[in-house]
Write a structure and sequence with these properties.
Helices cover 0% and strands 19% of the residues. By secondary structure, the chain is mainly β. Among the domains are: 111 residues, no CATH class; 78 residues, Tumor Necrosis Factor Receptor, subunit A, domain 2 (Ribbon), CATH 2.10.50; 61 residues, Tumor Necrosis Factor Receptor, subunit A, domain 2 (Ribbon). The strands form 25 sheets. A two-stranded antiparallel sheet has the order 1-2. β17 and β18 form a beta hairpin. It is rod-shaped and about 200 Å long. The protein starts with 20 loop residues before the first strand and ends in a 9-residue tail after the last strand.
């Protein structure tokens, strides 16, 4: 309470209601939710939940006052002369008949001085010649008795009237000196030449002056008031609430003149001279209203609205209660609203992932995020720049981030919602890539998120290890096939794997050296995968690691297969080779 929180507010006391306003409501969103300090009170600080106090005596507070003694003439002022302002005054009050105030800042009126007339709203005036005044009101004006006169104004006692001198003719009754036979034409009346009795001012008029000589000298009742009887010295009162009274009205409802019942789309508080149009943000579809109702949420109401349903809130905007015009509350950039007649900021949808909404008041997204950039959510730029260390959509820092430039090791095609890891077999060596930079170099493998064509970190890839080969674009090392081996790293193709050496065999894939020498009784040519595949021939012998069968030397023989040695010939026998 005492504060309001627009979109993006960081803490509850960031936006206090300003001086001259207050609020005891929760959930306020705009400064317009803060209420003006009511008439007769003042609000001298920010963040108030109730008015500070009552307006000081001698001053009036018209509404929105920031001090107990306002002097700006808008929210209040010092009480002017001829008026008085008691404590808590909302507007200056005229000193009533019989009292006066000739200074500013009066909290109460003083009694009228003797010999003077003090009429409401008028300057002090001396008691007229030919009269004496016991008090300060019109009723206190008494003519000098018959046989007396008074050529001097300002008399306060009958004893001040002088006896008429013999043989002197004094003018009467409408002259400056009275013998008591006539007198000044009283207030509320007019007296043409030769009048013996005063004539009352007619309906719709009044007169607060003496000596009025014509009916036209009676004042027309001012607009907003009525004069409901003849002979009035002041208007009967203000026009009745719910009605309006043009000048000259003789009825409190203005029905006898061009006034009358307040029409639709207008309101008429007490004392209305003309119907007041419902201000923007309000409406009324009824007649005779003293105030207009707030416009319904989902709609807006221009000035003088009688039917709010004619003004649905357009897409791209939202309209809370009291919205004044169609574009008053646009959806902020980064958001859009495809629906009409919505009534809160929550109706504005964040721009979906992979897209951006570049300005306010959008009813659809502006387009896809530009290639080389990614748009997480609520992006307002095709190339967002507020996030440069993306991990995943559930962990954004700051949490309000909308996207950023694609990082090394990633690529972002048009419409990307989050960076795409560089795929296995490829590398991404720069920021802002729409596609991978190219395939992994021969002799190397790229697992994922590689930033170099020849990675060596062991995480995103590495040089091809011994026993394997890596073609261009490899995502993992390929083992040298059985019958081959490689003791060197960085082989660029299968052809670079060495055939197994003669006399040895390579039984499995991915060998860095031959499995073992060929078994005795067998021989292994280059590229052999099995040590028992080729048995030693008759007439030959095959010791371990034989690359070919060896002929038995002279004097020896071998009549069996799979032998590692030859047998010496017996005496008397000859072995022919």
């Amino acid at each position: 309470m005492g504060y309001y929180c627009p979109a993006g507010t960081r803490h509850p006391h960031e936006y206090p209601c300003p001086p001259g306003t207050w609020s005891n409501a929760l959930g306020s969103q705009t400064v317009s939710s803060c209420w003006l300090c009511p008439s007769g009170y003042f609000c001298n600080s920010s963040g108030l939940i109730q008015p500070t106090g009552i307006c000081a005596p001698g001053f009036y507070c018209a509404g929105g006052a920031k001090t107990a003694m306002p002097d700006d003439g808008v929210t209040g002022n010092r009480c002017p002369a001829r008026y008085y302002c008691p404590q808590g005054c909302t507007s200056p009050l005229l000193c009533p008949d019989g009292t006066h105030s000739n200074t500013t800042g009066a909290a109460e009126c003083s009694d009228c001085p003797t010999g003077w007339l003090c009429l409401e709203g008028e300057e002090l005036q001396l008691c007229p010649e030919g009269h004496y005044c016991l008090g300060g009101t019109v009723e206190d004006i008494l003519p000098c008795p018959p046989g007396t006169y008074s050529p001097k104004a300002g008399q306060s006692q009958v004893e001040q009237c002088l006896l008429c001198s013999a043989g002197i003719n004094f003018k009467n009754p409408d002259s400056n000196i009275s013998t008591g036979v006539g007198g000044p034409c009283p207030v509320g009346h007019y007296c043409p030449e030769g009048t013996s009795l005063s004539l009352p001012c007619p309906l719709g008029t009044f007169s607060n002056s003496l000596y009025v000589t014509k009916k036209s000298g009676c004042t027309v009742c001012p607009a907003g008031q009525f004069c409901g009887s003849v002979g009035l010295s002041r208007p009967s009162g203000p026009c009745r609430e719910g009605f309006y009274c043009p000048a000259g009205a003789s009825s409190s409802t203005g029905s006898d003149s061009e006034g009358g019942l307040c029409p639709q789309a207008h309101f008429c508080p007490t004392g209305s001279a003309v119907p007041v149009p419902c201000p923007a943000g309000t409406y009324t579809n009824l007649t005779g209203q003293i105030k207009c109702s707030p416009c319904h949420a989902g709609y807006y109401c221009p000035e003088s609205t009688s039917k709010y349903t004619l003004y649905p809130c357009p897409p791209g905007f939202y309209c809370p209660d009291g919205t004044k015009h169609a574009t008053q509350f646009p959806c902020p950039r980064g958001y859009y609203n495809p629906e009409p007649m919505t009534h809160s900021l929550d109706s504005c949808l964040p721009c979906p992932p992979g897209h951006y909404c570049e300005k306010e008041r959008l009813s659809s997204v502006s387009g896809k995020c530009k290639a080389g950039w990614f748009c997480v959510s609520a992006a307002w730029n095709a190339q967002p720049f507020d996030l440069d260390n993306y991990t995943n959509a559930n962990c954004l820092c700051p949490a309000s981030s909308t996207g950023g430039r694609c990082q090394e090791g990633f690529y972002c095609p048009s419409g990307t919602s989050e960076p795409q890891p560089c795929p296995p077999g490829a590398f991404c060596n720069a920021t802002g890539l729409p596609l991978p930079s190219g395939p992994c170099s021969p002799g190397y493998y790229c697992k994922r998120e590689a930033t170099s064509s020849r990675p060596i970190d062991g995480i995103t890839g590495n040089i091809c290890p011994p026993g394997t080969y890596c073609d261009e674009g490899s995502s993992a090392p390929q083992p040298c096939p059985a019958g081959t081996f490689s003791s060197a790293a960085g082989l660029v193709s299968k052809d670079k794997c060495q055939p197994c050496r003669a006399g040895y065999y390579c039984a499995t894939v991915g060998l860095q050296a031959p499995t073992a020498p060929c078994r005795e009784g067998y021989w292994c040519p280059p590229g052999q995968t099995d040590d028992l595949a080729l048995p030693c021939l008759v007439g030959h012998y095959c010791p371990p690691g034989s690359p070919v069968p060896i002929f038995c030397p002279t004097g020896t023989y071998q009549d069996k297969l799979k032998q590692a040695n030859c047998t010496i010939c017996e005496s008397g026998k000859l072995q022919l080779s």
